[in-house]
Amino acid sequence: MVIIYSTPKSLHSKIEKKMEHWKHTKVSVDEIESVLTNFIPETWSFHNTYFKITHPSLVNHSHCNYHGDFFINLYHSEVDFKEIIYLVEIIEHIRNKRLVGQGLPL
Predict the structure, then answer these.
(1) Dihedral (C-alpha) 70, 76, 81, 84: value to the nearest 10 degrees?
(2) In angstroms, what CA-CA distances link 95 with 21, 75, 85, 105?
(3) Distance (Å, rounded) from C-alpha 60 to C-alpha 46?
(4) Which terminus of the chain, N or C, has less C-beta within 10 A?
(5) Could you write out the DSSP letters of every residue in 55-82?
(6) Partners of residue 70 on adjacent β-strands
(7) Beta strands in 3-90 (DSSP E)
(8) CA 35 to CA 3: how far, in whole Å?
(9) CB of 72 within 8 A of CB of 87?
(10) CB of 48 closer than 8 Å to CB of 55
(11) How many CB atoms lie within 10 A of CB 66?
């Protein structure tokens, strides 16, 4: 059974704009949690000091471990610039794999 999570277009474009902005600034934990909840709700979890994103398509991805896990470490409730670039890449990667798997255009 395939579960399809639909994000309204207006929210989708807001999220994309937010992610683009993230590439140039520090990001609060609340912002990250909001985007993950709306964009890839089934693939992430929050732990004491990090977010963990897991997806089968992330196995052997350059920023992930061999289980398909990507970790974002938290420092003083903000995330480092470099990790944000990786996070945006990971979210886009999962989104693209999901759309291709559903036969939808990217």
Answers:
(1) 30
(2) 18, 27, 16, 11
(3) 22
(4) N
(5) -GGGTT-TTS-TTSEEEEE-BTTEE-HH
(6) 53
(7) 27-28, 44-46, 50-54, 69-73, 78-79
(8) 19
(9) yes
(10) no
(11) 9
Q: Which residue has the tokens 């990507």?
A: 70
The DSSP output letter for 41 is T
The whole-angstrom separation of Cα 50 and Cα 81 is 15
Answer whether 0.90 is exceeded by the pTM: no
Instruction: Show pLDDT as tens, one digit a residue, over the chain (106 residues).
Output: 333 444 555 656 777 777 777 776 777 778 888 888 888 888 899 888 888 999 998 998 888 999 999 998 876 556 667 778 888 889 888 888 876 665 555 4
How many residues can be counted in the chain? Answer: 106
